[in-house]
Amino acid sequence: MAPMHQVLGEAWPEARGAVLSGPSFALDVARGLPTAVPLATHDEADQQFWLDALATPTFRPYASSDMQGAEIGGAVKNVLAIACGIAEGKKLGDSAKAALLARGFAEMQRFGAAMGAAPETMGGLSGLGDLVLTCGSRQSRNFSLGFALGEGADAEAYLASQPTVAEGAATARPLVEQAQAQGVDMPIAEGVAALIDGAISVDELISKLMNRPLKVEG
To answer: Catalytic positions, please?
Structure first.
């Protein structure tokens, strides 16, 4: 699973790529609501060019050199948002959603570290920030998918009925396979992938997560 900036570099070596990530909803940006996002590129001159080009009184980009981390945060949070949406649709309560958010963030941190992402990126806008946004609003396509699954919808039928794309549905399985290859434990992501694949039900997913061996946090 190659990151997109690497794919761009291989396909178009002359390109000066950059990664613009969340947390942002397009509607908020279009309405001129205050938004802050990371802009990652390896070239410092490009950083300043893009900051000057994109900044507005209500849209504030922050420079970063961690393109890998920015892409990881933007991909992993979509899978975790499906899990948080399930908790909301299943009416599991705020405590369950908080636990999923915190333990999901731990999974993101472990995966990011294994893939070479900087810790501050995972704890910044494109990691924790985008995770909080995507896991807490029906504006999120991935959260909405999870919400529907929590209410009893079939994943394949729901996805086929939507005019938009819930990226986490396609990302879940490759993410889990990459995590396993790196020796990274991601039980929430694994459960979401199994649910999307039709291998387990929502109730089985909840039971599987709650009955994992007890362990020390950290």
So the answer is: 77
